[in-house]
Design brief:
single chain, 2 domains, disordered C terminus, alpha/beta, seven-stranded mixed beta sheet
């Protein structure tokens, strides 16, 4: 009876069944590792290709015929790092962060001027920022490669599964960085540039624009809703976010500011729509230590002088902040301008208001006259992104794409 259960009464079949079960238990984890490692290896190769593509795009910006020496210099720059200040004694940490950030930016600009002496100051900024973002892709690839080597060496199936589950998000970040490299090299506006774009659209062509070189900021005094308003943004159209904290410190000494309004891209959750305009209070700019450092300086000025801060945020989902500006974000421009005017109108009669547009000012000049070129680049990139999205959806519907994991595994096993 028992034999019938295991092999239909045939003892040879039972033995074969037990052997196959033993082989399956012994080798299945290893086969799983081979399959997962093959998929991770394929994705890792894709990320390294992204880094190479970004580097090549930067080199073409510098010269039509890149030399081997130039390639090596840029590859070496991919290892550039910034050591954040020690925070064991937090007193004075903000000034330490400013010192490190400023020195890092000076080093980056110095490197670009060395390898590309013929570029203008604005182009140097563009290439410098593109290099930093491309270094980000390279660092992502290095980290994935590190874990992949650990998995291969010690057969760590659990870590392999964790990495595989994270790969789609990781590749999404790497792809966003590559898109930002292309945008910065072309001096095209990105999603994060909606704040500066709003401010530039509000500054008339005939308005006097004051440029502050040390703070990398530009501002103009205008009349809006019958009130004195100072419109400020990072100095464009070169790629930079400027030093908004230092700018507010300086302008508050020159002018009596009664209220501050900040305009910036705001992080949105997946499932939320890009380009939705929100109202809030407090300094809208948040994020890593660098952005928090700028916000801290503005908050210090506001606290000492008793200046209230209103905030307007334009929702952007994750990586869209560094993507070339999407259509939904671009369309929020008019709504945002109207919301700013509404906030200005609601204030006290004789108050002086400072309106700051936070964000990367790549491709965005310092007044309304610069919008034509910026809008041309935005619309061109919108068409390009729509085409890429159609091609991506078509590819995902492909039978062979759906079987891609098996193809990768087969290639790995055949090596």
């Amino acid at each position: 009876m028992n034999l019938m259960q295991f092999g239909g009464g045939d003892w040879i079949s039972s033995i074969i069944w037990f052997i196959l079960l033993f082989v399956f238990i012994l080798f299945y984890p290893r086969l799983m590792i081979y399959q997962v490692v093959a998929k991770i290896q394929k994705d890792l190769d894709d990320i390294f290709l992204m880094a190479d593509k970004g580097r090549d795009r930067i080199m073409k910006k510098i010269t039509k015929k890149p030399s081997k020496e130039l390639k090596e210099k840029i590859s070496n720059f991919m290892e550039f790092f910034i050591a954040t200040p020690v925070t064991l004694d937090p007193y004075g940490i903000v000034n330490k962060i400013h010192m490190v950030i400023k020195h890092a930016e000076d080093r980056e600009l110095e490197f670009v001027r060395e390898i590309a002496p013929n570029l203008s100051d604005e182009e140097v900024k563009d290439v410098s920022t593109a290099l930093i973002h491309n270094a980000g892709i390279y660092q992502i690839a290095k980290i994935i490669r590190h874990y992949l080597e650990l998995i291969k060496r010690y057969r760590l199936l659990q870590i392999a599964m964790l990495i595989q589950m994270q790969i789609p998000l990781i590749k999404k970040v790497a792809d966003a960085l590559l898109k930002s490299v292309e945008a910065f090299v072309d001096n095209a506006p990105v999603g994060d540039g909606i704040g500066p774009l709003v401010i530039a659209s509000m500054i008339p062509e005939k308005a006097k624009v004051v440029k502050l070189k040390d703070e990398q900021f530009a501002y103009a005094k205008v009349k809006i809703e019958g009130k004195d308003v100072i419109l400020a943004k990072a100095l464009g159209p070169g790629t930079t976010i400027g030093y908004p904290g230092k700018f507010v410190e300086k302008i508050s000494k020159r002018e009596k500011i009664d209220r501050i309004i900040t305009v910036d891209a705001a992080g949105a959750l997946y499932g939320e729509k890009d380009g939705v305009v929100m109202d809030g209070v407090g300094v809208g700019q948040r994020g890593n230590e660098i952005l928090s450092y700028h916000s801290f300086q503005i908050e210090e000025v506001a606290l000492k002088k008793g200046i209230p801060i209103d905030s307007i945020g334009i929702k952007e989902v994750g990586e869209n902040a560094i993507y070339p500006m999407k259509e939904e974000i671009y369309k929020s421009l008019k709504t945002t301008v109207e919301r700013i005017k509404e906030l200005i109108r609601k204030g006290k009669k004789n108050e002086k208001i400072l309106v700051i547009g936070f964000g990367n000012t790549s491709g965005v000049g310092n007044n309304r006259s610069s919008l034509k070129l910026a809008e041309e680049k935005i619309k061109k990139n919108i068409m390009k992104m729509k085409k890429e999205e159609r091609e991506r959806k078509k590819k995902q519907q492909s039978f062979w794409y759906k079987l891609g994991i098996f193809g990768a595994s087969s290639q790995f096993l055949l090596r």
